[in-house]
Amino acid sequence: MKKGKFIKFFASIILVGAFVTVYQHNQIIKIMYKKRRLELQKERLLKQKIELQVRLCELHDYTQTRSNASHKLGMTTLALSQVVTVTQQVYEFDFYHASSSDIFNCKIALPQASPRV
Q1: What is the CB neighbour count within 10 angstroms for residue 70?
Q2: What are the C-alpha distances in Å from 56 to residues 38, 53, 70?
Q3: Residue 78 has pLDDT above 60, yes or no
Q4: Of 49, 73, 86, 117, which is least packed with CB atoms within 10 Å of its CB?
Q5: Do the beta carbons of residue 104 and residue 98 sit within 8 Å?
Q6: DSSP string spanning 96-108?
Q7: Residue 97 DSSP SS3
Q8: Is the pLDDT reported for residue 107 higher than 90?
Q9: How many Å apart are CA 89 and CA 40, to the nearest integer?
Q10: Which DSSP helix (H) or strand (E) runs through 12?
Q11: Vertex 109 angle, CA 108 and 112, to 5°
């Protein structure tokens, strides 16, 4: 009788050991698949990072900015004759002595500067 109990006990230990081994193997395979998915995601993110860095460098490039401005936005460079320089003398203005109606209704007239010829 003791021999039968020992055989049943030994068989159950072997069976539990087999289940544990299969479970460990399944867990290892699962972890390996997860690792591969993360490696692929890392590669995609690195590729995307490089593409974004290239795009950023293109946007910072002066010639590319100039090309976009002229082709997409229709901007042109100004001729020297189109540039007008306006100078104006700065007058000291005291907000404490002006009335609020003068400030908000723009009744304060500053002298006009003569345009440069």
Answers
A1: 12
A2: 26, 5, 20
A3: yes
A4: 117
A5: no
A6: TTS-HHHHHTT-P
A7: coil
A8: no
A9: 66
A10: helix 2-60
A11: 155
